[in-house]
Every structure is written in C-alpha cells, then in structure tokens.
User: Fold this.
Amino acid sequence: MANHHQVKAKKKLGQHFLTDESIAKDIADSLSLEGYQHVLEIGPGMGVLTKYLLKKPIKTHVIEIDSESVDYLKANYLNLADRIYEKDFLKFDLTEIFNDDPFAIIGNFPYNISTQIVFKTIDMRDQIPEFSGMFQKEVAQRICSKEGSKVYGILSVLTQAFYNAEYLFTVPPHVFNPPPKVDSGVLRLKRKDNFTLSCDEQLFFRVVKTAFQQRRKTLRNSLKTFNLSDNLKANVIFDKRPEQLSVESFLELTLLIENDQT
Assistant:
C-alpha cells in the first residue's frame, strides 16, 4: 500500500518542498531530451518533479540523501525503485550509475549546496550535455549574468566557458513548504557545441578565481602572483577589472599569461 505520510522538511538539508504542480511540470519540460537517454534528479523529496520526468521518454534516476524521502519515494514510485540512490550527490561517483553514458541533471536544488552542484557539473561536463534546475534567484541570476553586471563573477565565467546559460523564470516563496525567505529562479544550461578551451584549463580556473577575489582591483594588481613580465603587463587588458571581461576575454587573457610563462 502506498505511503502517503508527508516527509518533514529538514532545515539542515536546506529542504524546501515545491508544492505547485504547474511549476514542477514547467521545470521538467525545460529539458530538451536531446543527446542523452538518462536524467538524474538531485534531491527529489516527495517526487513532485519526479512524476513529470517519469512521463517522458527517458530513464529517470534520483539521488537523495534524506532517508525519510527515500522511503517515501520507494513506497509511492514503484517503477522508480531500482533507480533511487540514497547518496550524497557531491561525494558519490556518478559513473557507478552511468558508466560513460551522457545524462542530464535536474532538480529543485538544496540551497546550501547549489553552487557546489554546478561546480561538479562543470567537472563532469564531458558527460552532462544539459542541466535544468531551481536555485535561489540571485544565484541563478549570477550563473547567467554577463560581463558588466555587478553579480557577474567566478561562477558566471566558469559555467559559461562550457555552457550556454539561460535564466528561465522566477518562482515566489509561497509555492514551497516551508517557504524560503527569498525568490527562487529556474535556469537551463546547454553545453556548447565546442566546449574545449583554447588555453590551459587549470590556468584558466586560477586566473578567473584570482581576478575575482579582488574584483575592485585592475587585473594588473590582482594577478601579481602570476609574476607577469613588464611587457605583458603593458597590455591594455590589464587596465580592466574582472567584471569588465567576457568569457572569451578571460580565455584570451589566460592564453597571454600561458605564452608569457613559457
């Protein structure tokens, strides 16, 4: 018999259960389903989004750290039972589920780990062509923002180096239980056709992170630790502050530094 006992949201897990069916359907519908046969939902809770994914011509898997939610899902979604993983998404080796197969990621993400979910996705970009999900609105806006914006930063540049980021819609607090204190935002990431960097990847990550750690300073000052030659420092790009540089400009900057160090 199905277990209809409601799962209690746990503050320490950052849980806010979505209660609006039409929003859940819109999130599920945001995936194109192109280029993969599997989708992984992170933090499904009581399955409000899961049930719409299960209607699609794709194999749905869910990963959930909360044992109470796992018990609920096993009782109420019998056709999902062997694809419910009681694991910590950030620590779990996803190749145990998917081997080398591509898969999409979706979810109403726990706020306290949402940026880490994006960084793990970037690390696994070879296998993740598409990603849709709900974040705190300001985090979703930051991921999708362009140069010149006050919220443009490390997360924006590193995500958009590999993915086209699109802010889809805003979700108000009252459609959650318990309601969060802020608005939420849903975004979609689609991997670029060419997501191979034109420069050294580790150096690119270091340049971006170092530049934004002192975002009010010009690059000439913030990137001093790279021991750049005077000749390179004379380049006008170093007169700029990091939020003035597009993703492409950061790639060009990294290439300049790479060539300067060889």
User: Anything to note?
Assistant: The domain at 201-261 is CATH 1.10.8.100 (Helicase, Ruva Protein; domain 3). The beta strands are 17-18, 38-42, 59-63, 84-85, 103-108, 130-136, 163-171, 176-177, 184-191. The first strand starts at residue 17 and ends at 18. The mean pLDDT is 93.
